[in-house]
Write a structure and sequence with these properties.
about 20% strand; about 250 residues; nine-stranded mixed β-sheet; alpha/beta; 2 domains
Length: about 250
């Protein structure tokens, strides 16, 4: 029997899409201790009412008392999560059938702490859209440095909605650095620094593209330059946390 999982979902004005996403997640939860943690970031639509209409013991709804933004909302959800495996989820995507088990099984191999998968994108008309041409390929130990370089180049498909990780990683990623503008790149950077990330080549997410998405935003030259600076800071901080945690482990 598999270990229980925690699914962390950040919600903001998701009334149009949240039902389809929740249904795709609940269909894959079958452990009595599984949990779907939903944190509403002060939605002004009927998102909360939709969540409350579900009669599921898996769902645990929390509401922010002020708008915190999706990065801090995900951080809060991860802190609340109690299970061995943590999945991240946006409110407007759809989980592909078998996603949970495929990613869970990948985390059982070797000493993997973080798994990232591929995804497909579609619009509100159901049309397939190619928004990120680079696909993840199976990682090998000698490829971690290459993955980090690809983060700097901006040509590796690391997105939070495609991630799951073991609870041990929380000691290294929480709290999120205050300066980051992408929690998924912080998590993936840390996973590669620790040499505990693995790529799953399967498509496990249908990622919806619409006007309110924050993903795939085009950036000008100066914004790209500043982003690379932030990547360097995350790399340095990831190594610092690795060293600090190793010291604490040795003391124990």
């Amino acid at each position: 029997m598999r270990e229980p999982v925690s699914v962390c979902l950040a919600l903001y004005n998701g009334e149009k899409y949240i039902t389809e996403q929740i249904d795709s997640i609940l269909s894959q939860l079958d452990h009595i201790e599984d949990e779907l943690i939903i944190i509403d970031d002060c939605s002004s639509d009927s998102s909360v009412e939709i969540i409350n209409s579900y009669n599921s013991s898996y769902i645990h709804l929390y509401q922010n008392d002020r708008n915190m933004g999706y990065i801090k909302t995900f951080e809060k959800a991860i802190c609340i999560s109690k299970n061995s495996i943590v999945f991240l989820s946006d409110h407007d995507d759809i989980w592909v059938e078998g996603r949970l088990n495929k990613m869970y099984d990948k985390l059982q191999e070797a000493d993997n702490w973080l798994v990232c998968s591929n995804f497909e994108t579609f619009n509100n008309k159901g049309e397939s859209k190619v928004r990120f041409k680079t696909k993840l390929i199976q990682s090998k130990p000698e490829k971690f440095t290459r993955n980090i370089l690809s983060i700097f180049k901006g040509n590796i498909a690391y997105f939070g909605c495609t991630m799951a990780f073991r609870k041990e990683l929380k000691n290294y990623i929480i709290p999120f650095p205050d300066y980051i503008d992408a929690h998924d790149l912080w998590i993936s950077m840390t996973g590669n620094v620790l040499k505990k990330v693995v790529h799953l080549e399967d498509i496990t997410i249908l990622h919806r593209i619409h006007d309110n998405n924050t993903s795939f935003v085009q950036r000008d030259f100066y914004k790209k330059l500043y982003t690379r600076f932030l990547f360097l800071k995350t790399l340095i901080d990831a190594y610092k946390r690795k060293r600090m945690n190793n010291i604490q482990i040795k003391k124990k």
